[in-house]
Amino acid sequence: MQELPWRDFLDAEIVVTSGFAQGRSAVCPAPDDVASWSQALSTLPAGRDPA
Domain map of the chain by residue range? Predict the structure, then answer.
């Protein structure tokens, strides 16, 4: 059986809204990308640089 190359990817949409702008972007992240984004976003409230 052939493994599908996109089977572990997710369909998602990023929505950003502020007082002066808004936007949407369709994305197709891998589970590893989501874990990395989660870790980077969790550092923002603490005021640290996610890089």
Answer: 1-46
